[in-house]
Amino acid sequence: MGKFEKQAQELLDAIGGKENISAVTHCATRMRFVLNDDAKADKKRIENISTTKGMFTNAGQFQVIIGNDVATFYNDFSAVSGIEGVSKEAAKSAAKSNQNVIQKLVGTLSEIFTPLLPAIIVGGLILGFRNILEGVQIQALGQVVEDGVKKVTSEGVPVWNTITQVSPFWNGVNSFLWLPGEAIFHFLPVGIAWSVTRKMGTTQILGIVLGITLVSPQLLNAYAVNSTSAAEIAKNWSWDFGFFTMDKIGYQAQVIPAMAAGFLLAYLEKFFRKHIPEAVSMIFVPLFALIPTIIASHAIIGPIGWKIGQGISFVVNTGLTSSLSWLFGGIFGILYAPLVITGLHHTTLAIDAQLIADYGSTNLWPLIDLSNIAQGASVLAIYLLHKKNKKEAEISVPATISAWLGVTEPAMFGINLKYLYPFIAAMIGSGVAGMVSTLMGVRANAIGVGGLPGILAIRGEDMLKFILPMVIAIIVPIVLTFFFRQAGIFNKNDLVGAGDVNYTSDSATLEGAQNIAKTEISKGTLVNVTSPLAGEVRELATATDPVFSQGLMGQGVVIEPSEGLLTAPFDGVVSAFFPTKHAIGLISDAGTEILIHIGMDTVKLDGKGFEAFVQQGDQVKQGQKLLTFDIDLIKGQGLIVETPVIVTNQDIFQPDVVGQLPRHIKSGEQLLTATKI
Question: DSSP string of 111-142?
Answer without folding.
Answer: HHHGGGHHHHHHHHHHHHHHHHHHH---GGG-
